[in-house]
Amino acid sequence: MNQVCFKVIGNDTTVTMASEAGQLQLNVMEPVIGQAMFESIHILTNACYNLLEKCINGITANKEVCEGYVYNSIGIVTYLNPFIGHHNGDIVGKICAETGKSVREVVLERGLLTEAELDDIFSAQNLMHPAYKAKRYTDESEQ
């Protein structure tokens, strides 16, 4: 795929230079412009089909491993800032880095949030929804 991209970048440079070299409204460089553009379209199309057929089709996610990467990442503490504050988030992140504990473990140990609150905040729907607005879940009536 990289080789195809490099070739297309080269063709783009060819089109740019050929376009600049044309005089007035008659561009004698049109044949090279057309050839470079159509070649780029052709090889990109073939490369995308090959990538789909030989690489993408059949890929499956290991849900447990993916969740482990997310929930064991110190970076997830930034998602808690609206709930625990930036200062507490910094402290939690530092403790996680020093001890190797997960954000969830440290937040629970320090009593910053309950298990139920963390479950709500760290639900897959909340983490992946681009328009999710942080809310503090204090009781059942606010959910």
Automatic annotation (TrEMBL):
GO molecular function, one term: aspartate ammonia-lyase activity
Biological processes per GO annotation: aspartate metabolic process; tricarboxylic acid cycle
Gene Ontology cellular component annotations, sorted alphabetically: cytosol
Domain Fumarase C C-terminal: 76-129
InterPro entries found in the cross-reference section: Aspartate_Ammonia-Lyase, Fumarase_C_C, L-Aspartase-like
Pfam family, one: FumaraseC_C
EC class name: lyase
Coiled-coil stretches: none
Gene3D superfamilies: Fumarase/aspartase (C-terminal domain), Fumarase/aspartase (Central domain)
Keywords for this protein: Lyase
Keyword Calcium among record annotations: no
EC number, as in UniProt: 4.3.1.1
Alphabetical list of PANTHER family matching this protein: ASPARTATE AMMONIA-LYASE
Identification of the protein by name: Aspartate ammonia-lyase
Species for this entry: Enterobacter cloacae
Classification lineage: Bacteria, Pseudomonadati, Pseudomonadota, Gammaproteobacteria, Enterobacterales
